[in-house]
Amino acid sequence: MSSLITQFAPEFTAQAIMPDKSFGTVSLKDYRGKYVVLFFYPLDFSFVCPTELHGFSDAIADFESRNVQVLACSTDSQYSHLAWVNAPRENGGLGQLTYPLISDFDKEISRAYGILLPGGMALRGLFLIDKDGIVRHETINDLPFGRNVDEELRMVDALQFYEQYGEVCPVNWKRGDGGIKTA
Length: 183
Fold this sequence. Notes:
23% strand
């Protein structure tokens, strides 16, 4: 497993469940000019995964206000995804999501991003891709550890601050703190 940081994000086109619960096709190239948070999770109908998917869905207005497209992906089929979004949250389902849920049933996307486990499931990988398609941040967690949506928003803010002002963001930096001039 090697890092994708500073490299072009691996391109893909795949089937997905769209926010309106229809089947659709998602291509990474369609989001050029926007930032993308692409996150992988292990399996539909599991315990930690819905908490993450709900967290990103609930924060979609924060991501959209920063010109970020959120995309989620697992190695489950689009039919499994559809069953999961059709099940209400209170019954272990996802209910309404606000971003596409990508099927990587052939496991090619997970493999390209370096997070496919030998058993065929994806680790909890997250990739922040800039407007030009370059991976600028990645985190990869083992299966039991969920991610922090606020931290991903902070990373988007740091990237955009750096792009706008050319200043780096020190430890525990948050939006509104300013930065450190590099020249």
